[in-house]
Amino acid sequence: MSIHALRSVSFQRLSFVAAAVTALMGTMPASAQSSDKSVYVGVSYGLGLPVPNNCRGAVACDRATDASKLFVGYKTTPNWAYEVTYFYFGKQARAFGPGVADSAILTESNRSWGAGLGISLEAELFGTFTNHLRAGLGYFETNARGELGDGSAFKDQSSRVMPYIGAGLSFPIMPGFRLHSGLDIFFNKKSPNRTNMLVTFGGTAEF
After folding, report:
1. Where does the pLDDT of residue 81 fall: very low under 50, low under 70, confident under 90, or very high at 90 and above?
2. Which residue of 28, 41, 121, 165 is 20 to 30 Å from 133, comparing CA positions?
3. Which of 171, 164, 161, 204 is nearest to 187 (CA)?
4. In angstroms, what CA-CA distances link 79 with 37, 49, 132, 185?
5. For the chain, percent of residues with pLDDT exceeding 90
6. 79 near 122, Cβ under 8 Å?
């Protein structure tokens, strides 16, 4: 499948998920009271968004990838929680035109994932939603392989511990279950190409 086709599929999937979540939320009664449950588990699906630098100079490049997130949280108060999160930022493919230097990248495919430990603050918003603000320290890893300008294959792995922040909205649809959306960002000042965002929609079960 071509890079452009993959990009189209990604946006189609996200649009479908967003439409389904919006339709379902519209049929539910509004209630944003903080849950008295102390443990929650969430899973979500969406798009990984590498920064534009990743595509600079490329003739073809995935600007969005299929991505997902899994997290577990423990509430110490109705508004504060500790969270452990696994982030999958997806697989990005990019290609550069003919004539690149022998040691330069001609084509590349990379996968990125991360894990984080942080805190979450939640507060009611407009009497309907619950707002979630997250911050923590995360491990981010990228595995890449491809072809250089001289036709030789290469493999590369890079990793770094870096801060991340996140924000999201959730909406209870039944006791012990919420729909949620979120935006998470990993920052890497030493390597801007590896600064990634994750936009997701999913569900959270509370125990």
Report:
1. very high
2. 28
3. 164
4. 11, 29, 9, 22
5. 56
6. yes
